[in-house]
Structure formats: C-alpha cells, structure tokens
Amino acid sequence: MRSEKNYTKFQLIFLLTLRFAIGWHVLYEGISKIISSQWTSANFLRESQGILSGFSQWILSNADLLTTIDFLNAWGLVFIGLALIFGFLFKPAAIIGSILIFIYYLSVPPLVGYEYTLPSDGSNLIVNRTLIEAIALFGLALFPTNKIFGLDYFIQSLFKRKT
Q: Which of 15, 38, 154, 162 has the most crowded CB, counting CB atoms within 10 A?
C-alpha cells in the first residue's frame, strides 16, 4: 500500500487543489441555498425523470418532508464543503458528498429523450459535470490528503504527542 509520504509535490498540490475546489463549490452551493429565502428543492424534484423520480414525487407529496429535505440538503452541503476544505472528517465527508451528488445525477440524468426546464451546463449525453464531480469526490476519498494537510492531520498529531 502506498504511503501518503510517497506523493510528489505536484501530485499533492493537484490533489489539494481538487479537494479545495470541490469543497468550495459544495460549500457555496449550500450557502446559496441557505441565504436564499426563495430556494426549495421542489423545482429540482419536479424535474426528476431518472430512476429516483418516484422518490422525488414522494418527497414532493409531503410538505414537512420537503422542508426537512431542503434543510438537510443545504446544511449537508455546507458541512461537506467545510470538511473538504479544512480536511476534517475528510473521508466520510468525501464519500457522503459523492453519494449526495450522485443522487442529484440519478434524479436528473442527461439521457436522450429527457428534457428539462432547469438550466443545464450545455449539451450532455450520459456524462455531465455532476457525474464528474461525484466521481472526482469519490476518487479524492481514496487519497489521504487530510493526513498530510488538514485538521485531521493536526488532531492526529496532537493525540500522538500526548501518548
């Protein structure tokens, strides 16, 4: 198994840059949802045509559940983004973030015959930025950058000094 000390400087810079960039994007998405009094996931859920469309319709059918999902989604994005940026509980945050973003992808997949009224990032077929970000985030979970630079590293160092 490869040790985190075996990465080149450029590999670490790339992995940390990717971690911070995705963390910033996820954090910003969460904050923008929290500060917008008009935001609700209802519009996105109405667009669902993927394999999770039934689940989306179930959420839409219950106003209290929709409110709970909106709260969990927005604050989950904030906490995942902060965890990625600061390298705190990094691996669980990266995996949970990857799953959450993949759920977005499965809800509104870019497939032939599916048309959406919400804006998209261009013409996509099967692969879009949402899928790429989910895959990249899962891939980041495989690299322990938090053990090189992040709060997990500093906390681990403190516990090692005390023992």
A: 15
- pLDDT digits 0-9 by tens, 107-120: 988 876 677 777 67
With the C-alpha atoms ordered 48, 53, 58, 61, is the resulting torsion angle positive or negative?
A: positive
Report the distance separating Cα 146 and Cα 23, nearest Å.
Answer: 13
The DSSP result for 97-125, as a single string, is HHHHHHHHHHHS---TT---SS--SS--B
Q: Assign 87 to helix, strand or coil.
A: coil
- CA–CA separation, 52 vs 139, rounded Å? 24
Rounded to whole angstroms, the Cα distance separating 50 from 108 reads 6
Note every long-range contact of 156-161, with CB atoms under 8 Å and residues 24 or more positions apart, other chains counting. none
Residue type for position 37: S
CA 80 distance to own-chain centroid: 7
User: Distance (Å, rounded) from C-alpha 134 to C-alpha 98?
Assistant: 4
Query: What stretches of 32-147 adopt beta strand conformation (E)?
Result: none
Residue 41 identity: S
1 pLDDT tier (thresholds 50, 70, 90):
very low
